[in-house]
């Protein structure tokens, strides 16, 4: 009876601990026993941090075990069947989502816990799936001020989409069929309509239709780019173009026949809308969105990039380095074309610089302590061979016994190599891990030199733009040249420095006293020290206590054992070990005099790593918690691992 009362008291304390959490949208479907309620609270703690935006299918548990009692979990949703399908399993349930819905989808996922007596309790979580992005070059029906567009037209006679590139070709606006050459164009609202401009470096440059007086005294229309606006446009929604009145006549910008430049023409030529797309090609505003590649082709031009959901941007490789990392940009005009070329055993990833192949590599280097560390570079020599991971839409490479991919994480905007163990769980992709893949933009291919023939290639000669067939006198003076200012490099973040510069040690020595502590970045960078106690009094002995007062902390030591290290502190002269173990499906910490875990030192993370039931684990905390617990190493990004600090 005493044991029963003690157990009941412990469960009550567990419920009290969880009751301090706020739960949104949960409802009780029947009278709950303490066990059912504990199971529900356990589920809430398990999945509360996963609610929010999701990008892929994910799994949830179908069974919860509390104090050796199993409780079945049934999952339901209010989503339409075409958007979310629930696939129950013996121990897990798969939540199969439509990853590319036509519209945004918000849905509730409800877990109902039941015991063998029919008692039940429920908890709900809300998820969001964003609508699939429209891909390709999409012309907008109603452009608005302040939004970046491309100024372009479909030249049906040439079967090409031509983009304004911010330059002049003689007296005409120059274009390119390469969307990477297109400049961002904006509408600026003014009295009576709009100005149209782009940024030439830091200079606002306007696209104008204007006139000049020919030698015979007649007034001729022309087009120019200038730092001064000289006309006001209005939007002709029916024809999808801007029109303006100049000297009593109405004009639009576009082209005709087989010309590939943009010039001003009388709107009388497109008064009959049936001519649009047949003989007359007015210019309009469009957006360009690249398509994610699910199966790459060799020798085809792609962009290499990723969706960085933490910063809400699509980032593309520039072909340059930012320190030790691969630099990226949000601007298509600054992105570089990347090619997949065949290699023995897989592929190389290349880009061309002055006609010379440069390889995107994952490689290694030897650190000062003699350990090898993965890194990345762009070089004229290949150092790795990639294979395509179709499930994760990324390339992977084996280097020095490790398997890596290129991508980013947290809020970083550079591309670096990481172990594929971080994306083994595909549910992390798009949430905390952002692997880089290929994007198809319909780019024109460059000539790829054969192996052994790399040399700078002169640009292909370009025929001059044909003259305007309408007889016009040349403009008396060329348009005023605008100064091109160099664009300053986009600032990139500084990645974490090595431990020695942050106060904690870069290696540990057996028998030396340390303080075990962490910096809680979500608590104003509070320094939390291990107290030598757990939360056993609250029924949670797997959480270790901390304090901000270093005088209230204990000294910890490591000792060498067969296969690695163990971690302990002294209590009344006796060794108390901080030990990792597995309880059902969870990895936990405990204080014990009979340890089972053996640690190894991670030179990468500057902390101890243990292997529990085949899974690498670390000690630390996450979210806003102030306790020390055990977590899988795959979750270390964005969390706060413990480190070892010298005793002062």
Notes on the protein architecture:
This protein is mainly β. 5% of the residues lie in helices and 47% in strands. It has two helices and 49 strands. The strands form ten sheets. Strands 37, 38, 39, 40, 41, 42, 43 and 49 form an eight-stranded antiparallel sheet that branches. Strands 1-8-7-4-3 form a five-stranded mixed sheet, covered by helices on one side. The chain has a five-stranded antiparallel sheet with strand order 9-22-10-11-12, with no helix packed on it. The radius of gyration is 32 Å and the shape is elongated. The two termini are 50 Å apart. The N terminus is likely disordered.
Short characterization:
The protein is mainly beta. Helices cover 5% and strands 47% of the residues.
What structural keywords apply?
disordered N terminus, 5% helix, mainly beta
